[in-house]
Amino acid sequence: MNRRLALQRLSALSAVPLLPWSGLVFGSTASTLNALPRTALVIGNSRYKDAPLKNPANDAGAIGDHLKKLGFNVISQLDGGKAAMENAIRSYGELLAKSKGVGLFYFAGHGLQVSWRNFLVPVDANLGSADDIPRQTVDLAALLGGIGKAGNPMNIVILDACRDNPFGGDLKSGKGLSQMDAPIGTLLAYATAPGNVASDGSGANGLYTENLLREIRTPEAKIEDVFKRVRLAVRRASQGQQIPWESTSLEDDFYFLPPANLKKLSEEELARQFAEESAVWEKAGQANQIAAVEDYLKRYPSGHFSELAQVRLDRMLAKKGEKKVSVVNTAANPFSKGTGVIDLNYRIGDRYVFRSVDLLTKVEGKKLVNVVSEVTDDRVIYNKGALETDLLGNMLKRPDGATFGPSQFFVSEYHVGKKWSTRYSAKYASGHSDTIEIEFKVTGRETVTVPAGTFECFVVEGRGWVLSLGMLLEYKYWVAPDKTNRFVAIESWWRRYNRIQRSERQELESYTRAG
Question: For residue 178, is it left (φ>0), alpha (ψ between -120 and 50) or beta?
Answer without folding.
Answer: beta
